[in-house]
Amino acid sequence: MRFEDYNPLEGKHYNILDINGEIIREEELPSLSDDELLYLYKTMLYTRTIDEKALSYQRQGRMLTYAPNTGQEATQVGSAYAMEKDDWLVPSFRELGAWLVKGVPLKNIYLYWYGNEWGSHMPEGVKVLPVSVPIASQFQHAAGIGMANNIKGENNVVVAYVGDGGTSQGDFHEALNFAAVFKAPVVFIIQNNQYAISVSRKEQTTSKTLAQKSISYDMPGIVVDGNDIFAMYSATKNAIDRARNGEGPSLIEAFTYRLGAHTTSDDPTIYRDDSEVEEWKEKDPILRFKKYLLAKNILTEEWDEKTKKELEVEVMSTFEEIEDKSDTAIEDIFKYHYASMPPVLEEQLNEYKAFLEGGK
To answer: Choosing from 57, 258, 288, 292, which is the catalytic residue?
Structure first.
């Protein structure tokens, strides 16, 4: 695959697997073993199971506000699988599948959404930054890590994610500009799920595509079918290889759809039609991949059903574990921002303690 063949100004989408599970570009099919394909499929199932259970727990009042991922599994799992172990993942807040591929334990993920500071403490060797909720701020972090890699002479690549709404933020453009100027080894991925909270993609920008914003910074840009696991893997692998070879950053627009709400505080029925959602359900990335695997006799219905049940048990067990043991020490909220706590934070900590104790 060559980025040059997919001019983002033309709106042409890069894809390999169609919605019927059939390969439309045989020469582009990545060389992955049957075990790797089953791993990718299982991770997509795992992502959805975690997502559905999290929604249920939130509705039961057992979890805080949650940002659903359903419909975006191929974008996340496919892109993250193209990364090497020492590459950095810089997420926004809707990268559940990518976290799992990079080795973030489910316990951490649920702790984060449960409001526990320990959810952001990554295990040793897992190169994943904590969630950065301010929109597009994570692109700045990614550009900085990429520039630092160059200064230190390291050969790692950074993969960062943002939603379509983030492309309207100043941080997005500043990060792309600096990464391009300093040839930082960064792959910027836009999860274009068509809505920034309640604002549709067409109301955010008059640009024909979001990938065409790469042209302003003289970096390769491409629109990829974000519901196609093969296309997402191949395009990201191509961009990562390019970055590792010292050729600088790339911008990938993953064209996908958020089947659920922006967060559990949102009601999407207010700003979009059910018919639109039903149309996108037919493009479900998991269903599409399953059709391919069944046709190739890599997957059986029996394996599929058995795996879904096993994943559900594992997810429920993990949540019950953190629910029983998830108290957060107040100090944990304050003490990790700096190597030593500055006076202003110490003052806030003491005020908060006094408040909890009934003081003023």
So the answer is: 258
Residue with tokens 């100027």, as numbered in its chain = 181
Q: How far is Cα 23 from Cα 234, in angstroms, rounded to an integer? A: 14
Amino acid at 343: P
Q: Is 271 an annotated catalytic residue?
A: yes
Q: Which helix (H) or strand (E) holds 7?
A: none
Selection from 256, 239, 232, 264 nearest residue 56 by Cα: 264
User: Is residue 191 within 8 Å of residue 254, measured between CB atoms?
Assistant: yes
User: What is the spatial distance between Cα 206 and Cα 208, in angstroms, rounded to a whole number?
Assistant: 6
Task: Give the whole-angstrom CA distance, residue 273 versus residue 148.
Answer: 45
Q: Which of 271, 272, 288, 336 is catalytic?
A: 271
E runs forming strands in the chain: 13-14, 88-90, 158-163, 186-192, 195-196, 199-200, 221-225, 250-255
* Token representation of residue 226: 């974000």
Structure tokens at 199: 């604002």
- For 94-115, write each residue's pLDDT tens digit: 999 999 999 999 999 999 998 8
The CB density around residue 13, as the number of other CB atoms within 10 Å, is 17
Say how far residue 87 (Cα) sits from the centre of its chain.
15
DSSP for residue 296:
T
DSSP 3-state of 37 = helix
* DSSP code string of 314-326: HHHHHHHHHHHS-
Which is the catalytic residue, given 262, 288, 337, 338? 262
Give the residue-averaged pLDDT of 285-301. 98
**Structure tokens of 329?**
């020490």
Q: Where would I find the beta strands (DSSP E) of 149-201?
A: 158-163, 186-192, 195-196, 199-200
Closest CA to 78 of 120, 47, 110: 47
Concerning whether 258 is annotated as a catalytic residue, the answer is yes
Q: What is the pLDDT of residue 226?
A: 98
Question: Per residue in 7-48, pLDDT tens?
Answer: 999 989 999 999 999 999 999 999 999 999 999 999 999 999
CA 146 to CA 157: how far, in whole Å? 7
pTM, full prediction: 0.94
